[in-house]
Structures are given as C-alpha cells and as structure tokens.
Amino acid sequence: MKNKDKKALRELSVSDLNKKLSELELAFAKNQMEKKVGKTTDLRMGSKLADDIARVKTVIRAKEMEA
Questions:
Q1: Helix, strand, or coil (residue 2)
Q2: Which letter does DSSP use for residue 41 in this model?
Q3: I need a surface site. Which of 4, 24, 26, 54 has the fewest CB within 10 A?
C-alpha cells in the first residue's frame, strides 16, 4: 500500500473502512485457497493483504478511540 493510500484510509468513515476490511478479508481467503491449490504465482500477495488488513483495523480502532 502506497503512502497516499494510507493517508486516504484515515479520511474514510468507519462504515467505509468496515466495507474495505470485508473486501480485503475476502481477497485474503481467496488467495489462501489459491495458494493451497497451487494456482497463484504471487506468493507474497497473502502477506501484503494481511498487512493491509492490519492497517485498516488499526485505523478503525483509532477512530473508535477518538469518538
């Protein structure tokens, strides 16, 4: 995730962040399935998605603490 994408995350509302989180979790699950079957060629994608999920969860938690 690029720096501008990280900054854009902080500008989203909590409901938008939750939608983004569910999309990322779905993509992560699909990637894990493809990895086990042997379809995927990008083995690093799983850890990238996990990092993105953690970033979104961190922003959600920070917004909840502010309110």
A1: coil
A2: S
A3: 4
